[in-house]
Batch of 4 targets.
Target 1
Amino acid sequence: MKIRRLPVLHIEGYKELSIKTAPKEFLKPEHVYIPTLLPSPMDVKKEVGDHVLLGEVIMESRGRFPYPVLSPISGTVTAKVKKWYPSNKMSDMLEITNDFKEETVDTFKNLDPDNMTRDELIEVMRKSGLVGQGGAGFPAYVKYATKEKVDMVIINLAECEPFITCDYTCVLYNAQTFIYGFRYLLKAADCNQGIIAIKDKDINTKVIDYLEPLLDSNMRIELLKDVYPAGWERYTVETISHKTYKALPIEAGVIVSNASTCYSFARMLKEGVPPSVKYLTITGDAVNSPGNVLAKIGSPIPEILPLFGGLKEGHNPENTHIIAGGPMTGKSMFFPDFITTQTLGAVIFLENKNKDKKQLECLGCGRCAERCPSFLTPVEIKKELAVGNIEELKKLNVTKCIQCGLCSFVCPSRIDLTYSVGKAKEMVLRLGRK
Ligand code: SF4
Ligand code: SF4
């Protein structure tokens, strides 16, 4: 299959803001909150009053590839509450009150990955509820349980969205553990070629220098251009393997895993602890001291923000633009009162300089279509969405949108095309399911 040159764009990174200081820790929250409806509806296994261990199954996701959700702390289920999820939606959640004992299930203790088979490694991954922590949230074991031959495992360390430095921080401060995890991801894929994909930019020099002496002989680092969306799976796979695919990277013999996912897998094998913590970037020009934090999953953001000196004087949640995730693909949040998850990489607090700037009429400049890496025509999609023309939306291939945000970013009229294309995609997929 011929590889098309994907339209990409260099955009300002603002990464320096959050890498000036060592990461902080937020590992002893009084309560954690675990959603029962998002990202998909769950079968809840625990009731109010039940005691839970760290790593105990508290719910099971429904769907084609079910996975368990484990408690990130030991303690007691104390309430069912409604709270904000980082997709700017409310969800029912279980509140677990910490007993601060960190009593952990035996499932992951004393694992000996050198003497485990590929299937056993994949089974541990499944039981741990590990999901792709780069944002997709797809259960990690599914990729590794493939029957296809895997030629290459790529660890995605591109972290291509502006502001986010959680993967960078995770690897910089845990380089040995990260490589340990990568070794066994290769084993879980029965593959002898591992590549760490990272952007070719100055701030990455340090992490590359740390990693290089630690690499096994079957691992190497490959540099990606400093463009957006370099971390998009298709861009990474096509750039590195020089092969393309229709639906999934495995068609090109490739598995892609995110760097934080690799680290979580390593901790489980090495320390017997299932995914219960995640690095998170707290940044933006409205934050006093931006940086990163290793936080328990399910922790409330308002409790984490004070570690970074809170918001600057004169700023409050009402006059600040709060984004859960990156500025290109993340969600603008009404309130900062949401929780961390396995997939949340950043919370950005920006001075709301654009609040008085109005959206203008479309100028017909065509930039949105020129820059779309999925070769869509966002302006046309927006028009067809407005009249509800589903057949035309299907012809315009809306389901190929990866929600990268580039169309909105380049639009001189400040039209939120990403939102419209996302809506159109949702509509077509929903009708398809019916
Ligand atoms: S958000 Fe969707 S439509 Fe817009 S540029 Fe990205 S892929 Fe294209
Ligand atoms: S980039 Fe904006 S102004 Fe230009 S064609 Fe697309 S929607 Fe219209």
Note: The chain has a mean pLDDT of 93.
Target 2
Amino acid sequence: MEHHPTPPAPDRRNFLAKAAATVIGGITVVIPAASGLLVLLDPLRRKSADGGAVFVANLAAVPESGEPRKFPVLATRVDAWNRTPDVPVGAVYLQRVAGGAVRALNVACPHAGCFVDFKSARNNYHCPCHNSSFALDGKVLDPKSPSPRPLDTLETEVRNGTEVWVKFRNFRAGVHEKIPV
Ligand code: FES
């Protein structure tokens, strides 16, 4: 005798159809949302992959004589919705030092944030606001200087033997400790 399987009950068919619709609906929401999140986070991922360093100058632009030269620092500013390239965030003095390395000093005076000047006649840095003076390595020269600490050094890296990259940071003014802001 021929045997026919019993068709599922209508309730069970409805349940399976609803479950399938829920899964498909879920996939259509989750995949675009995940893609959107990846796009949103992409600049942040690229920024962190760089370790926060920014290209500042070609090594050829830094005097071989060892005299410091000032360069603006431009960086990409990223917020939740926008990625704005080449935003000025500060400036540094770059100076060639022994071993082919490059020293970077933040130009902001640690006393109150005025930009210091390099004085080639005296071979040191001078702050025009309250007369702090600093040696080439950033140390405070005159004990009467109101600056509470040396000029802020920054990590540098020479890439491909030609490009100077700097991990640029600003630091809190008016305190002895070097506190990033
Ligand atoms: S801001 Fe430089 S000495 Fe005051």
Note: The chain has a mean pLDDT of 84.
Target 3
Amino acid sequence: MSEAPVLRVENFSKQFTLHEQGKRIPSSHNVSLSVYSGQLTALIGPTGAGKTTVLKGIYRTYLPGSGRILYRTQAGHEIDLAQADEHRMLALRRMEIGYVTQFLHALPRQATEDVVAQPLLHKGISKTDAQYQAREMLAAMNLPQRLWGISPSTFSGGEKQRVNLARGLVSRPRLLLLDEPTASLDQYTMERVIRLIEKLKTEGVAMLAIFHQKELVDRVANNVVTLEPPPAEEYALEETA
Ligand SMILES: Nc1ncnc2c1ncn2[C@@H]1O[C@H](COP(=O)(O)OP(=O)(O)OP(=O)(O)O)[C@@H](O)[C@H]1O
Ligand SMILES: [Mg+2]
């Protein structure tokens, strides 16, 4: 591979401090990985190994731990997301980095098609275009049209996941982070999502995705990174400060 990666994570570690109990909880431990344009890197490993924490560290939902998170921007600059200021992070989230979380957080009064169109509006796309693309993506996700005008807050798990995916995929970010995107989908919808992921690859999107099903990893991953749970002695450390 001669092209430079879009994202390079070097020795990322993160631990949480529970101040009230004076305890440290180790999470991601020494994670290194690369994600390339037009390719999908799969992040696998047992429950509690710190997979979601890696994605949240990249997206900066969590404060940075140690290590470097080097992202190559559209403009060609390499920046360390672990050091970037909030303003920069907000701009990157709006224009370049997308994140499909495991669970959808939507406002109870917002119609599904508006939830999906929102990232496009934030990117500066006109309302008409955003609405058109949102509907196309909802149709591609096989979400029944009768649900488009109502809020997803009362949807079933699989329906919510389709809305969440539609919202993440519609804006075609340069780097897309996916946390178990197909966990509650039926086989038919899962096939559609796989095809969409393949299409995004041909468009050059770089993806980092957490999967639990090996079959899926074999089908869509170009690279596989396996996380191990933190070593046992890490858990024994009590906070001293
Ligand atoms: N905000 C937090 N505060 C305290 N501990 C946390 C926090 N977030 C994650 N952890 C801990 O970090 C560890 C790794 O969590 P993480 O969610 O990254 O695991 P995972 O590999 O995604 O697991 P799963 O496959 O079950 O989703 C867990 O022990 C978890 O309890
Ligand atoms: Mg997780």
Note: The helical segments are 51-59, 86-95, 112-122, 127-140, 157-170, 187-202, 214-220, 232-236.
Target 4
Amino acid sequence: MTRALESWLRVEQTAFCPGCGHGILLGAVVRACDELGLDRRRLLFVSGIGCAAWIPSPHIAADSLHTLHGRAVAYATGAKLVQPEMTTLVVSGDGDLSSIGGNHLIHAARRDIDLTVICGNNQIYGMTGGQTASTTPVGALSATDPRGNRYRPFDLCAVVMAAGARYAARWPVTRPRPLTDSIKRGIRTPGFAFIEAISPCPTQFGRRNRYEDLTRLYDAVDERCLPREEALRMSPEQIEGRYLVGEYD
Ligand SMILES: Cc1ncc(C[n+]2csc(CCOP(=O)(O)OP(=O)(O)O)c2C)c(N)n1
Ligand SMILES: [Mg+2]
């Protein structure tokens, strides 16, 4: 990591589990801010509660509001209204943003609040022990679904676009360059932007779904990705269970 990038970090050591995809997402967020040359005195991070919510606070050396579970977008909306000149980034988890916080998310998109919301989607409630989330794939095992999840997961990018977002993008953390570029594009977008990072969780998702090692878990995530443009020419059965990656605008 270069000295310029290091200057964005507040801590020397992370508390993330070994192999957590959120660490790669942290790198992408910091790179995006650095490459855009953002003035960190005019930058505010907002997060809720969960492992992903630790990405800005304590890791990033900029102001951050570490708020209540599910309420990151609500706090960010208030902060943006009071200080519209601040670049305001929400970084939080799939559970935080789309389960308990789902209503705040869709209404911020509908109102086109000028936020960039970055979701670390590990398909599970990681921090609290691996419960099923609104993003857990059908059939996946979790603490609350030991025989497999029955319900279809949200397509978060489609949800926010339907609600009125200006820009959305989905990438796995195994593809850090397009992920970073989409975060940059989200920040530059005036109005509501949403970036979903598919982020492997070895400790809860990987262990419960019997991935033998990190390589297999990361390969499995990457192999499930399908470019959105290709998916448009395929049947619903063919794209079942795949992550449609790319930009939505
Ligand atoms: C009102 C409220 N309900 C539930 C909790 C417990 N809780 C904290 S984080 C969390 C889920 C976090 O999952 P996610 O947002 O996906 O983040 P991850 O840890 O997976 O990165 C839950 C249920 C809480 N802190 N407050
Ligand atoms: Mg999660």
Note: The pocket of thiamine diphosphate (ligand 1) is lined by residues 49-52, 69, 93-96, 120, 122, 124-128, 133 (CB under 6 Å).
